[in-house]
Amino acid sequence: MQILPIGENVQLKKYKEISVAKEFFKIQFSHLTSQPTLSTEENKQVQTVLWEIFRSKDDIHQRALAGLCLRCYVSHRILITCKTIPHIYNVSAENLFRYTDLLRFVLNDDGKTLVIVDSEGKNQHILNHHDGTTRPIPKGRGFFSVDILQRFNPNLGSKESLDNWTTRLTRQNQEIKSFLWEFGLATPSDWGLLCKSVPRSLSGLLLTEDYEIVKAFQTVYQRDRLKTRQKGRCSEPTPSQLQEMLHLLQQINITFSPQQLIYHLKRIAEILRQDWLYRKTGSTKTVPTEVYDNSTNDYFENPELPYYTDREPEDIELEKLQEICNNLFEKMLYQIIAEVIQQRIEDLQKSRGYKNFAQRFQEGLRFYYQENKSLSEIGKLWQIEWSKARRIFQLENFLEIVQYRTEEIFLEKLLQSVNKYQSTRISHEPDYLKNLAAEIRGFAYEKTFKEAKAELVTSKRQIKNSLFARLIRLYLNN
Prior knowledge:
The model is unreliable at 1-14, 304-314 and 420-428 (pLDDT under 50). The strands form 3 sheets. This protein has a 3-stranded antiparallel sheet with strand order 3-4-5. It is mostly helical. It is globular. The chain has 19 helices and 7 strands. A hairpin with a 4-residue loop joins strand 6 (290-293) and strand 7 (298-301). Helix 3 (60-88) crosses helix 6 (162-171) and helix 16 packs antiparallel against helix 18.
């Protein structure tokens, strides 16, 4: 068996032979060692036997050696996959990067360490071959080749091979995707972007007409996609779909030709792409959707426009779930902020000492969250002491009430929206709901409340820009 030399400076001049893996292979498949090549069926049978030893053999040392043989095979497939990625996005001429730049993200296997996985197949453990003891590898520090084997099951179906599985997971590797995003590559297609909800942050960049165009597109395109159960990459709308979109737009007095509609759809999609890239990487990459042809005095689709290759249904579903969570969370948070503000005003109206400040509560929030004034400065404007202003606002308590109510209602709404078909699972798995609630609390805390709480103790000079603060400003401005 052979494995690629791995390291920060990858040298691809030759393979490194792993003698211990080679000997193990000869013992297990003595009838195949004399053959120069293996048939597809023989190759698959070898992979299946090795995988079963790696996952279920009682002898822990045998398991580790079987895994090492598979890691040799997987490392070679990883190399082949990385070689193809620059060509997928047609970057060879631009020399943006070479395939060797990608290897450091996925070829981190030293080819020496003996590794097994636990009984559940979730965690990697290093085996000490001298005394048979093991020690866990921390999360995020494991070998990518072993991660591929952990998630592979040759018994799932005849169509799934270890080659395809390795290629798919290598292309979907988060570090490789992040690297490609830095160049504006591996982004969703125009049509895939237009299927998503338009982020509220783009309200200043899109016209009212643009929202109507997106709405018409989604009405027709998503309906047909669901009806025909299309999966993977979103293809260009058909002429009949475009005509139906144009008809919907004409009903609200927006008239285009099919060519004009395509132009506007691509223009909007490019705005969505830049926002998508910014949220993923913190920066944008401008890629023109059309290129001007001097010979025809017309525009044509940019042949180097990066499109994401076919995506797995699981990835699409996960992204959709994340989109539902984000949109639902912002909607719930805005609603709860409005309710708690009104409740606080009502409480102040009932208070003997602070009744006169009930109608000024929103003004005070505007001072604090929009004009960035401190409680001390607000107190001076209102001609009261700082301590009294603090008791009027009770900002820590205000934030905690919003957080508690948002988590509670968010969980309820999310279960209604996403888990309506999982009632059996919830009733039969007592920990499911508890774990989901914990995940939601963590999601909500990281989404806004962590930053919002930090803003209460930071310098008054620092602009408050948490999602919590932005939604308060949105509420006050409306």
